[in-house]
Amino acid sequence: MALVLGTMGALAFACSSSTSVDPGGTGLGGACGKGCTAPQTCDPTLGCVECANDAACPAGRPRCLLGKCELCASNADCPASAPACTPRDHTCKPTCTATSCSGDAPKCDTATGACVGCAGDADCAGTSRPFCDPVTKQCIGCLVDSQCGTAAPHCLRSAGRCVQCLTSADCPAGTPICRGEGTCRAGCTSNAGCPASAPICNVSTGECATCLTNADCPAGVPVCDGERCVQCTNDKNCGGATPFCRDKKCVACKSDKDCPTTAPKCNNGTCGGG
Hints:
By secondary structure, this protein is mainly beta. It has strands at residues 41-43, 47-49, 63-65, 68-70, 84-86, 91-93, 107-109, 114-116, 131-132, 139-140, 154-156, 161-163, 177-178, 184-185, 200-202, 207-209, 223-225, 228-230, 244-246, 249-251, 265-267, 270-272.
């Protein structure tokens, strides 16, 4: 039976809805270092996932496999017209023959009728990817941490390879930030580690920034845009004598039509004479 995310015992950690900010201060890092867009959640071994079990999937893609909603998990999910669930892309196809398989799924598994890259670990023996993934039927470097060595002790399941870290909690104090590819690097873990010019620590990425939210910005430049404080990003941020936003600054005009008859020309955001 194909393994679904839930049966792998993977924990689903909620990530930021739209940015790389980690409001909990956990510094998750790793595959979710840039944050996950809701309704996705973060699984350290898979990255941002759309499901943790079948119940989270829509009717058209009802099976949850490795954090993705797929059409089928086994032949039982397929119609008689296309009875073979192909592990590589989890779609239903006609039963394979000895000559119908190619590419990264060159073998015809006579037991299931699907084209596969491997049927078991024996097909992967002697290679740099010695394990057959039971979900995708492709040769990979690891399935679980116990298959990894001391230099790279964690299995990044989404890539099927051993890495130094899955989250920043796996990294030493000298290099406390887990990169997306699974290596530890230097970086900040709190605001105390940042300079005055960029005083806010984005604990998910380990980078110091001018701001992460509008609350981090002073009154004169109250909007946080791309981790820097600006006057505005749209006209709604402006008002009074400077109601328009242009190049991140509030100005009196964008074009001549915004100016009064007494000062009809717009020049660099200021109304003046003709």
